[in-house]
Amino acid sequence: MANHVFVQNNAAMRAVPVEERENFWHKLVKFYETGQQDDLNDFLYKTSIGIMQGGLTMQKTREIEERNRKWLGLE
């Protein structure tokens, strides 16, 4: 269902990285138990939303671009 909503809104599909799955399950259970979604939303944004063609999230792509700008002396 969630992936369908992402596609309808021109966003990339959700794919939780293997190394983050346990953390994801803890945050998901917390969301179901408390109804608080900020922690889960933040986690998904940083790790799973906006997967680019190379398999990188938008957050990781920005980190790489920032590191490259610093390395090139552009900042």
Topology diagram in text:
Elements: H1 2-8, H2 21-34, H3 38-47, H4 58-71
Helix pairs in contact: 2-3
Description:
With 75 residues, this protein is mostly helical. The protein has one domain. 60% of the residues lie in helices and 0% in strands. It is built from four helices and no strands. Helix 2 runs antiparallel to helix 3. The longest helix is centred in the middle third of the chain and has 14 residues. The protein is elongated and about 45 Å long. The protein starts with a helix and ends with a helix. The model has no long low-confidence stretch (mean pLDDT 76).
- Tell me the overall shape: elongated
What count of helical segments does DSSP give? 4
Radius of gyration: 15 Å
Question: What portion of residues belong to β-strands?
Answer: under 5%
Report the order of strands and helices: HHHH
Poorly predicted sequence stretches spanning 5 or more consecutive residues = none
- The structural class is mainly alpha
Distance between the termini: 41 Å
Average pLDDT confidence is 76
TL;DR of this structure?
This protein has one domain. 60% of the residues lie in helices and 0% in strands.
Features of this protein?
single chain, 75 residues, mainly alpha, 4 helices
